[in-house]
C-alpha cells in the first residue's frame, strides 16, 4: 500500500473529521512531509480535502471516479473485479471484450467517467458527458439455465437500481417505465440495457451483460433530449464512488433472484404506466391502448381501443399520455 492510499483510507474512514498531520503520520507510520506530499497528490487526483492551520485536513469528497475509493467503500471485496475508465467508447463494449478474452465465473464491474459511444436499447446513443453521470456495465454469470423467465432480469435490475437511488435521494419519487427506464416526473433519468453472452460449445446462455446509465447532476443535454431527459439532482453530486459501490453490491447480491415474485411485485408498484394510455411500437406496427397490467413473465398487458387484450414481451413505449 502506498502512502497516498494509506492517507486516503484514513480520511475516507472518517469523512468530515479533522486530522492533524501529526496524527495521520503517526497512524500510518510515515513522516509529516510524506503525509503532506500524499495530500497534494490526492488533491491533484480530484479528492476534495480541506486544509486548515491548527486543525489539519478534512475529507469532503471526490467528484471523480476513483478505484481506491471504490475498493475502500466495498471493503476491498472486489478489487480484481472492478475496472475504472476515465474515458472509454462504451462500458458495455469493454465488458464484452473482457468476456471474450477471459474465463469469468463471478461478477465484474466496468465503470466510466465518460463514454464516447455509450448506447442503450436498439443501439440508440446514450448521452454520457464527464462528471455529471454514472455509466457502468456488469458481467453477471447466469444463475440458471431456465430461460423461460429471462425477460424478468431487466425488470428486476430496474427495481434494484431504483432501490439504491431512493436511499441516496430520499426526497425523489422514482418511477419505472416498461421495460427498462427510470423516471422522475415525466422525464427519464436512467436507462438499462440487458444483453446475453452465449457459450458456443454448450449452446447455453453463459452470462448477462447489463449496462446502466444514470443522469445524476445538471448537464447540457442536446436539444433532442431536453424534452425527455433530466438529471436526478439540481446540484453537483460528489458521492459517485459510494453510489457506484451501493449499486454494484445491491445488484450482485440480488440479481440471482430475478425470477422472484417479490421483485416483480415491487416493479408493478413502482410502474407509472398502469392505467395510462400509451402508444407501443413493435417493429413496423404501432399499438394504442391502456396499460392494464404486467404479467408474471414481465410482459406488458394492453387493452386496445376496440377492447382487445394484447400482451407484449417486446416493444417500446413511444408515447405516454399523462393527461
Helical fraction:
25-40%
Strand and helix order: HEHHEEHEHEEHEEEEHHEEEEE
Shape: elongated
Give unreliable regions as ranges.
none
- In the CATH scheme, the class of the largest domain would be Alpha Beta
Number of discrete helical segments: 8
Domain BPL/LPL catalytic: 76-259
Protein name: Bifunctional ligase/repressor BirA
Family: Belongs to the biotin--protein ligase family.
InterPro entries: aa-tRNA-synth_II/BPL/LPL, Bifunct_BirA, Biotin_CoA_COase_ligase, BPL_C, BPL_LPL_catalytic, HTH_11, WH-like_DNA-bd_sf, WH_DNA-bd_sf
Structure explained in plain terms:
The chain is α+β, with helices and mostly antiparallel strands and 323 residues long. It has helices spanning 3-13, 21-28, 32-44, 67-73, 91-101, 152-168, 240-254, 261-270; strands spanning 18-19, 48-52, 56-61, 82-85, 108-112, 133-141, 174-177, 181-184, 187-199, 204-215, 277-282, 285-294, 300-304, 309-312, 316-321. The protein has 3 domains: 3-61, Winged helix-like DNA-binding domain superfamily/Winged helix DNA-binding domain (Arc Repressor Mutant, subunit A, Orthogonal Bundle), CATH 1.10.10.10; 67-270, BirA Bifunctional Protein, domain 2; 277-321, SH3 type barrels (Roll). The chain is built from 8 helices and 15 strands. The chain has a 7-stranded mixed beta sheet with strand order 4-5-6-10-9-8-7, with helices on both faces. Helix 5 (91-101) links the parallel strand 4 (82-85) and strand 5 (108-112). Helix 2 (21-28) crosses helix 3 (32-44). The chain is elongated and about 80 Å long. The mean pLDDT is 90.
Amino acid at each position: 500500500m502506498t502512502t497516498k492510499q494509506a492517507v486516503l483510507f484514513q480520511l475516507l474512514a472518517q469523512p468530515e473529521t479533522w486530522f492533524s498531520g501529526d496524527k495521520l503520520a503517526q497512524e500510518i507510520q510515515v513522516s509529516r512531509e510524506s503525509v503532506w506530499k500524499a495530500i497534494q497528490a490526492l488533491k491533484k487526483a480530484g479528492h476534495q480535502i480541506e486544509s486548515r492551520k491548527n486543525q489539519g485536513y478534512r475529507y469532503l469528497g471526490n467528484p471523480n471516479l476513483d478505484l481506491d475509493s471504490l475498493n475502500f467503500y466495498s471493503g476491498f471485496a472486489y478489487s480484481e473485479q472492478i475496472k475504472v475508465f476515465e474515458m472509454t467508447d462504451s462500458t458495455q463494449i469493454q465488458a464484452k471484450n473482457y468476456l471474450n478474452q477471459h474465463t469469468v465465473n463471478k461478477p465484474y464491474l466496468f465503470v466510466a467517467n465518460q463514454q464516447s459511444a455509450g448506447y442503450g436499447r436498439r443501439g440508440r446513443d446514450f448521452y454520457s458527458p464527464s462528471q455529471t453521470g454514472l455509466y457502468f456495465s456488469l458481467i453477471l454469470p447466469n444463475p440458471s439455465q431456465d430461460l423461460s423467465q429471462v425477460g424478468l432480469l431487466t425488470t428486476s435490475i430496474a427495481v434494484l437500481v431504483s432501490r439504491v437511488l431512493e436511499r441516496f435521494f430520499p426526497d425523489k419519487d422514482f418511477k419505472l417505465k416498461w421495460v427498462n427506464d427510470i423516471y422522475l416526473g415525466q422525464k427519464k433519468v436512467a436507462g438499462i440495457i440487458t444483453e446475453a453472452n452465449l457459450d458456443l460449445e454448450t449452446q447455453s446462455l453463459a452470462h448477462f451483460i447489463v449496462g446502466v446509465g444514470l443522469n445524476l447532476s445538471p448537464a447540457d443535454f442536446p436539444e433532442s433530449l431536453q424534452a425527455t431527459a433530466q438529471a436526478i439532482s439540481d446540484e453537483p453530486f460528489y458521492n459517485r464512488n459510494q453510489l457506484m459501490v451501493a449499486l454494484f453490491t445491491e445488484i450482485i447480491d440480488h440479481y440471482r433472484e430475478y425470477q422472484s415474485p417479490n421483485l416483480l411485485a415491487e416493479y408493478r408498484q413502482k410502474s407509472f404506466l398502469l392505467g395510462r394510455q400509451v402508444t407501443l411500437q413493435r417493429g413496423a406496427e404501432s399499438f394504442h391502448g391502456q396499460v392494464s397490467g404486467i404479467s408474471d413473465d414481465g410482459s406488458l398487458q394492453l387493452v386496445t381501443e376496440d377492447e382487445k387484450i394484447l400482451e407484449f414481451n417486446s416493444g417500446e413505449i413511444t408515447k405516454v399520455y399523462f393527461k
